[in-house]
Each structure stands twice: as C-alpha cells, then as structure tokens.
Amino acid sequence: DRLCILRWETGEWSSCSATCGVGLMTRTVACTHRPSRDSNHTEAVRDKDCQNPKPSPPCAKDECQPQWVTTSWSQCSVTCGNGVQRLQAVCRKQKEDGAHWTVDPGNCSTMARPTKIRPCSLRPCESKRTSVWWRMDPWSPCSASCGGGSQTRSVRCMKGPEGRSREVESQHCLSTGRRPSLTRTCNVQPCARWCRDSTRYCEKVRQLELCPLPQFKNRCCHSCSNT
C-alpha cells in the first residue's frame, strides 16, 4: 500500500542555462510518500524507491553569433635572448547540439580580437666575437702595375673576444661560413705597348717606391711597369 502513494515532488524549472543556442533547464526533485492515505503531509524517502522522473528538457534560444576563443601561446619571437609570445585566438561558432567548430576569422570581424602578449626568454645569444671568428689582415701591394696582378692576405681563425682572442685551427671557424679568400686580382688594365721613361731619374723613382704616384708613373712608364 505504501508503494502506491510514492511520488516525486518537483520544484519549478530554472531559466535556460544558455543565452543562445541550446541549453538545459533544471529543477529540484524529491521522492516522497504520505504516511497514510488521509495524511495531509509528505515525508522524503530514498530516491531509488521512486521511478525515475522525466529528464530535463532542452531549451532552444536564438542562434549564437561567432566569437573569438583563445587557444594557446605562440612560439617565442626569437631563437635566443629575450622575446615575446602572443596569445592565439580562433573564430568559433556553436552548433545546434552545443558543439563548437572553427569558422573563417572574417565572421568575427565585428568583435575585437584578443591581443595579449607575455615575455619569453631563451638561451643567451652567442656573440660572434665571444666564440670563433675570421681575422683578415690587410691586402698586400699589387704584384703588377698593369696587365693584371695579384694581392694576398693572411686569414686566421680566432677564438674569444677581440683583444683577448687566440688563434685556433681553421676548421673551428667553418661553422660561421667559408674562409674568406686569400688572394684577389688587381690592376687589370692593359699595359701600354710603347712605354719609355722621359727622365733620367726613373731608376731612383723606382727605388724610392714612388711609382704609384701618377706624376712619376707617367714619366717613368718603363721603369715603373714591373713594380
């Protein structure tokens, strides 16, 4: 007889859980019974004594507008030293079943895109002058004044900051790039076919290494042609 008067007492439905799309409404329920058929009050009993109540019905609202949803932080803007990371965002829209999917960013153009940044620090940047680097000496004088000559220079692999560096094997500097050239051509202009000295002091001009000066080079063409 007691089982015949078991029933659910239910409260009022709540407002919809969503402001757009599909949500749910909830209410309070309790399994109760009357101690006797002519009793005016009820008493709560175990929920399992009552049959399951009807499930909460879904509530439908207007279609949700797309909106920006932040996802993850981007990679650091640098590969060494200090940089920044940006919080990435995608434009998403809610389906009728409550699921979300990503849509074209243009659908969110009426809303401001989230812009957040934070600092990031990676390993210290390695300065070229504190690791290994090529040291290049000045070019030597050209081996000919015309007709094509050559110049040479010394190139060494150095390690450590300038002023306190030391020479090491060339292979250590190959990671910074190919070794700079050791030779180059110079004075490639053709030599004059008829070339003679116009003063008797040309031998002295050559000995004093005055041939590079135009006024001596022209007057002592023959003597200066092999310097």
Summed up, the domain count is 4
Strands, total number: 14
Tally of alpha and pi helices:
3
User: Mean pLDDT, as a whole number?
Assistant: 81
Radius of gyration: 46 Å
Low-confidence runs of at least 5 consecutive residues: none
* Proper CATH architecture of the largest domain: Single Sheet
Shape, per Cα inertia axes? rod-shaped
* Beta-strand percentage range: 25-35%
What does the main sheet amount to?
4 strands, antiparallel
For this structure, what is the CATH class of the largest domain? Answer: Mainly Beta
Distance between the termini: 131 Å
Class of secondary structure makeup: mainly beta
Order of helices and strands: EEEEEEEEEEEEEEHHH
**Helix amount:** under 10%
Give the CATH topology of the largest domain: TSP-1 type 1 repeat
Structure overview:
The protein has 227 residues and is mainly beta. The chain folds into four domains: 3-60, no CATH class; 67-121, TSP-1 type 1 repeat; 126-191, TSP-1 type 1 repeat (Single Sheet); 192-227. 7% of the residues lie in helices and 29% in strands. The protein has three helices and 14 strands. The protein has helices at 202-207, 214-219, 221-224; strands at residues 7-10, 22-24, 29-33, 43-44, 58-60, 67-73, 82-94, 100-102, 117-121, 132-136, 149-152, 155-159, 166-168, 183-186. The strands form five sheets. Strands 6, 7, 8 and 9 form a four-stranded antiparallel beta sheet that branches. A hairpin with a 6-residue loop joins strand 12 and strand 13. The longest helix is centred in the C-terminal third of the chain and has 6 residues, at 202-207. The protein is rod-shaped, with a radius of gyration of 46 Å. Its main location: secreted. It holds the Pfam family PLAC. It comes from Labrus bergylta.
